[in-house]
Amino acid sequence: MLSKTVRSCLKSSSRSIVRASEGSSIFYRQYATEGPSIPSQPKEIYTKLSDSKDPQRNPFFQYSWGSWLKNDNLKKQQRQTKFSIEGLTSFFNDLKVKETDTLTQPKENKGIYILENNSNKDLLGETNEKISVKSIASIHEGKHHRIYKINLNTGKNLILRIPYKLDSDESIASKIKSEVATSDFLNLKLNLKVPKILAYSPSKSNIIESPFIIQESIEGDLLMKKWHPLDPDSSETDKKLKEVINPIAKFQDNILNITFNQFGSLYFFNDVEPILQSKLPYNDETDDRLKNRWRIGPSVEKIFTKDKNKLSQKIINQYNGPWDASNPISLMESVSEIELENAKHKLSLLESESGGDVTESKELLQNQIKTFEHLKKITPSLINSKSKSIRNVEDLFKPRLYIPDLDPLNVIETPNKEYYFIDFENSTIKPFILNNYPNFIAYNGAKIYDLKEDIPEFEHMDPMEKQQYEFMYYKTRNERIWEIELNKNKHNLIAIASPHLKILKSPYLQALDLKNPKDYLYVEGSIIQLQAMWDTYVANELVNNKNSNSNFPIQYDENYLDKHQSDLSDYQLETVSSPFNATGGWIPQDMFDTLKNQGIIVDEGNGNYKIETKKVLDNPPPSSEEESK
Questions:
Q1: Which whole number is the average pLDDT over 515-520?
Q2: In 3D, which of 268, 279, 122 has the Cα closest to residue 184?
Q3: Residues contacting residue 204 through CB under 8 Å, at least 6 positions apart
Q4: More confident residue, 19 or 464
Q5: pLDDT at 130 over 80
Q6: Does residue 211 contact residue 173 with C-beta atoms inside 8 Å?
Q7: What is the arrangement of strands in the sheet containing 221-222, beginning at the earlier edge strand?
Q8: Cα(527)–Cα(505) distance, rounded to whole angstroms?
Q9: pTM (2 decimals)?
Q10: Does residue 115 surpass a pLDDT of 60?
């Protein structure tokens, strides 16, 4: 039976859909704003399940939430998420509801892996007929995935996640395998609130014809709705900030309770090489069902997949672990080594006759190589893992699970005030001391703890200048609340808040956060920054100093430092003066259409656009009086 809503919609659709033998239809629901006239009305498109070539389906798979100023066609093509609707419906038709407490490895069937412990009526619902798909709605187009909601004839909803083709097939497969295993670990071992996963496939070799994850749909609101990080100080603000920070801090506290035996990422037992299956991921497991459920394999941290499409998987496997728990330096060195390998390989392609389709210039790649050689040289010296000056240093270097996307955007608050966490892609096991704070709370700028005491002239500043200092104060305040919670929950790990440790690990963290080709300048800058304090760090045994002298590991000359400062200043000016540079040239679609209609965005052809500065001046934002009209 079709729902009343779907049946009523079908009355105004073609009769062939009403009479479809499959007994169900698919509609595409577009939640992105289509323009100023219809900012909130979804668009629905219906298609027969038997008609796989129906052109009406195309928007169901095409990226539509934004456009890019450069290479728009390519970037949208990479984000197409075409899959077989017929294959998806067939998968559910063949699925059987099972009630079992037995834990087995995911069962493979024609390229699809099913977690039978989750194939129960709580997740799938009950029916006397075959399970069937009533509708599919596209509900979100994220940075790395497109999210669809599947409505079943049992009344249950599920989430279908399709990854974009931004990385190699091997990288996508590894990330899916590891993310599913990590979610399974959080659920079964730590009993945390995460969506239960029904099925997944690491490749397109299945009837759905795409890699995917199908998981539980959690109803509720994103915690981000409550996040107001720049609200002025008050008891109410303090309460609201903690309503967001505390649940995330508690979740982190729970995942930090387990220390592992290696650095790397979690996988199911059958998904790692036989040589890795003999090594337990952690000790003292008392539940026999879990002893051989997970293992530690190669890291899927973003550094080993992002912008590595030109490296073979064989080369990547030389650097992505896993690593022995007694050797954290090798994990740190792998970051500089893979970036160095990547830059050298691109340079060799660029110098070949074909050019290798490399977008970076020869000079830029040579500069990258120089920086990553510096990073490789200094990495073994950065942090002394045996330092007596670092409180609880051994605890800080133990392998612990790190989830990079802990964020209010990835937390769903249910009507019962339960907090469900989603998105564990790129999770890895590494020393806690090498982690950064979650992005929503992290602040690397100058700290201001009290506006009046730290900035004596604050009261006499103009409003614009005050806003700048207020921003710095609020970011400092929010990070401080996070650190207070960390100290409360894991006092033995609070040394991570040390400003000196933050400076020492900055080159490593900057390398992990490369977004643009010129970001190597920030890596070099963070290395140069260490030079002034190096003697002090050596004297206090904060760094590894294997030589008898305290000389800085890298010898810079004045010309190199002057050029770096000049290049960095130019890059920062380019960044702040280029519209949408912070988003990589991406613009929300409704804004893009408006600016294009105004002539501010001009089509240069081949998926490239430019900003017409003169038009910006000719079309200033409306005054408050005009807006009120």
A1: 94
A2: 268
A3: 210, 211
A4: 464
A5: yes
A6: yes
A7: 221-222, 411-413, 419-421
A8: 10
A9: 0.90
A10: yes
Domains and CATH numbers, the chain: 4-217 (3.30.200.20), 581-628 (no CATH)
**Alpha-carbon Rg for the chain in angstroms:** 26
Q: From residue 244, give the alpha-carbon distance in Å to each of 56, 323, 473, 541.
A: 41, 35, 19, 38
Q: Name the strand (E) or helix (H) holding 150.
A: strand 145-152
Query: Letter for the amino acid at 130?
Result: K
Helix, strand, coil content of the chain in percent (nearest 5): 45, 15, 40
Q: Using CA atoms in the order 590, 594, 596, 600, what is the torsion angle rounded to 10 degrees?
A: -130
pLDDT tens by residue, 405-426: 999 999 999 999 999 999 999 9
Distance CA 339, CA 334 (A): 8
Q: What is the pLDDT of residue 56?
A: 76
Q: Which of 528, 523, 551 is nearest to 340 (CA)?
A: 523
**What does the chain come to in residues?**
629
| Mean local confidence (pLDDT), 203-212 | 97
pLDDT, one tens digit per residue, over 533-558 is 999 999 999 998 876 567 899 999 99
Matching residue, tokens 């077989």: 84
Cβ atoms of 236 and 242 within 8 Å: the answer is no
Residue 229 φ/ψ, nearest 5 degrees: -70, -15
Helical axes 362-378 vs 520-530, angle rounded to 10°:
40
Task: Using the structure block, give the residue that is written with the tokens 């409306």.
Answer: 622
Over the range 167-202, which residues count as b (16 or more CB within 10 Å of their CB) and which as e? Answer: bbebbbbbbbbbbbbbbbbbbbbeebbbbbbbbbbb
Give the count of beta carbons closer than 10 Å to the beta carbon of residue 299. Answer: 26
**How would you classify the pairing of strands 66-68 and 586-588?**
antiparallel
Select from 155, 177, 206 the least CA-distant residue to 2. Answer: 155
pLDDT at 59: 83
Beta bridge partners of 605: 608
Backbone conformation region of residue 407, classed left if phi is above 0, alpha if psi is from -120 to 50, else beta = beta
Task: For residue 262, list its beta bridge partners.
Answer: 324
Per-residue pLDDT band at 34 (split at 50, 70, 90): very low
Model confidence at 613, in pLDDT bands (50, 70, 90)?
confident
